[in-house]
Automatic annotation (TrEMBL):
The lineage of its organism: Bacteria, Pseudomonadati, Pseudomonadota, Alphaproteobacteria, Hyphomicrobiales. Its main location: periplasm. InterPro entries: Bact_solute-bd_prot1 (IPR050490), SBP (IPR006059). Belongs to the bacterial solute-binding protein 1 family. Part of a binding-protein-dependent transport system for a sugar. One of its GO terms (cellular component) is periplasmic space. This is Probable sugar-binding periplasmic protein. Keywords: Periplasm, Signal, Sugar transport, Transport. It comes from Rhizobium vallis. Signal peptide: none annotated. The keyword Transport applies.
Amino acid sequence: MLAGLGVAQAADVKEVQMLHWWTSGGEAAALNVLKQDLSKEGFAWKDVPVAGGGGDAAMTALKAMVAAGTYPTASQMLGYTVLDYAQAGVMGDLTATAKKEGWDKSVPAALQKFSVYDGKWVAAPVNVHSVNWLWINKAVMDKIGGKQPKSFDELIALLDKAKAAGVIPLALGGQNWQEATMFDSIVLSTGGPEFYKKAFNDLDEEALKSDTMKTSFDNLAKIVKYVDPNFSGRDWNLATAMVIKGDALVQVMGDWAKGEFVAAKKKPDTDFLCYRFPGTDGSVIYNSDMFGMFNVPDDRKAAQVALATATLSKSFQSAFNVVKGSVPARTDVPDTDFDACGKKGIADLKAANEGGTLFGSLAQGYGAPPAIANAYKDVVSKFVHGQIKSSDEAVKQLVQAIDDAR
């Protein structure tokens, strides 16, 4: 993919160049909505796609482009990465567009923290994803006589039922970001909202090295016993496909998984079920895809403004998020076109935003800066794959890794 990094040098002013890692079926379908909107405005779309669910490979590619001064029109980014590039002085300024369109009134403060730098809008939030979800195959659930688990113990009992019925209980991809994304939910479930915030947003050392964190790792050890032997290295959307096909009962994943169900023409409550991870109702662990806008030459700015305007339009926010599985990054978009899971997601976000229980996902780059998130993912993954043998040792290594990364 790096061969395509020179594209920005010969950019057509009527062309939008987008660096992103949206390459699964559901993601590509969602992105198509934006391509069509821009094509009506007369702008051609130039994909610079870099495969890889967590976006690490895309961010490496972006770093090379920025170093070479060949900026794309925009890049898909997560929270702290936007701020890093803004601090480096390479981001554009969308403030005039944002003011004209009232972004400050409609975009939640939690997202503005990452899309506004030094008083200037530098990124357009596309959506709000939340990670504390269970995705369940309804036919398998009915077959084993399962019901919605309301506690972690009930979840384990449900996985036992699936195992007894000869179905893979838990679909998981053994990649560090997937394992850590699941652990975000386990920590919230084990310790509650206040504990999650202290440990994973405030990075409070007492919380990080507490017995509650140890219990969280014990719970992680319990749940990973239910994955199949081939999970190592599996992409997230292949794990989702296992649930869609009925080869597995449940996946713990962000709501981008719903985009795969939608792409497979599956319907909530008929083909699949969406529940909050047991013990996390009332809280939302979020991340948000943002289009970070670079400081491109003047003759390319019209394409950038068109992209920003299209991205934050109510019609796009609805159409895109219906397909993607996420919910709008604006709080004033009606839920009319959303399915049952989407309506629940919108209502949950509103309640969490108002109730102070909207927390940045550490695994997804919204809880803490990238160096700390990477240290966290590394420790969780080593524990899952048996390189760290006990929860005591995991807690010790987590505290050490986060200290080293600060």
